[in-house]
Amino acid sequence: MKKLNVLVACGAGIATSTVVMKKVEDLFKEENIDANLIQIKIAEAASKQEDADMLISTTVLPTTYSIPSIKAMGFLTGLGVDKLKKEIVDTAHEIQSEA
Amino acid sequence: MAEEKVKISNYLNQQMIFLDQDFKSTDELFEAVAQKAATEGFVTDSFLPKIKQRESTFPTGLQLETRGVAIPHTDADTIKKEFIAVITDKNGVPFKRMDDPDADVSAKVIFVLGLNQPHAQLEMLQTLMATIQDDALLDKVEKASKIDDIFDIL
């Protein structure tokens, strides 16, 4: 199974992405998805997407990306977390099945 | 919350708690917080312009089920000493939403995060997010009338 490279972004790459990193790490562990998480500022996403499979962000996306991009504010507000988790897991499985 | 080791109160400072305010805008709020933070030696001169700019590019308002909160923060290099400022506002300060900058959220509780060590404050940030998601706890913060109450609650 392909090891996924996942970008986790927020505006400053310091606060909300730190929280989301942990949530995504736990989620992938639970689901046995092998992934490498990289914490970035959203401004870096455009230049880093080539080497990555998925982008998970707590900010609005300033542009469109060539890789699947998921907004993850739910991890901060606690609203719609189950749906968000499913979206992340489904996307991960999809990428793995294409590889 | 009893199992959480890191408490938000470890990052609180008497000088950086502003209760029962009536800020009309985020800029007004940032100016008041920045002035105090500069006096207390928490931030550099670039903190104010940078947090204003950051908030306009990547807003930090969060719409919860029953209320709005905001967690403004900015680049690590503007923070000399880490802090969390707590602001409660009588009428709510209009913030743009993190997930939709075209929508406003009225925040009566605002946590300004002065953090300069990425990765290092995971536990504190998790506690903070748990606090934000705890409606009863946030209610106490919103209604607190004394600075000491904030230390007790958080």
Main traits of this protein?
heterodimer, A: 99 residues, alpha/beta, Rossmann fold, 4-stranded parallel β-sheet, 4 helices, 4 strands, 41% helix, globular, B: 154 residues, Mannitol-specific EII, Chain A, 5-stranded mixed β-sheet, 34% helix, Galactitol PTS, EIIB (chain A), PTS_EIIB-like_sf (chain A), protein-N(PI)-phosphohistidine-sugar phosphotransferase activity (chain A)
Percent of residues in β-strands of chain A: 15-25%
Number of helices of chain B: 5
Most extensive interface, chain pair and sizes: A-B, 23 and 28 residues
CATH class of chain A: Alpha Beta
**Overall number of domains of chain A:** 1
**Total beta-strand segments of chain A:** 4
Helix content of chain A: 40-55%
Description of the molecule:
The complex is a heterodimer of chains A (99) and B (154). Chain A is built from 4 helices and 4 strands. Chain A has a 4-stranded parallel beta sheet with strand order 2-1-3-4, with helices on one face. The longest helix of chain A is centred in the C-terminal third of the chain and has 18 residues. Chain A is globular, with a radius of gyration of 12 Å. Chain A has a single domain, classed as Rossmann fold (3-Layer(aba) Sandwich), CATH 3.40.50. With 99 residues, chain A is an alpha/beta fold. The mean pLDDT of chain A is 92. Chain B has 154 residues and is an alpha/beta fold. Chain B has one domain: 3-Layer(aba) Sandwich (Mannitol-specific EII, Chain A), CATH 3.40.930. In chain B, 34% of the residues lie in helices and 27% in strands. Chain B has a 5-stranded mixed beta sheet with strand order 1-4-5-3-2, with helices on both faces. In chain B, helix 1 packs antiparallel against helix 2. The termini of chain B are close together. The mean pLDDT of chain B is 92. The chains are: A alpha/beta (99), B alpha/beta (154). At the A-B interface, helix 1 and helix 3 of A face strand 5 and helix 3 of B.
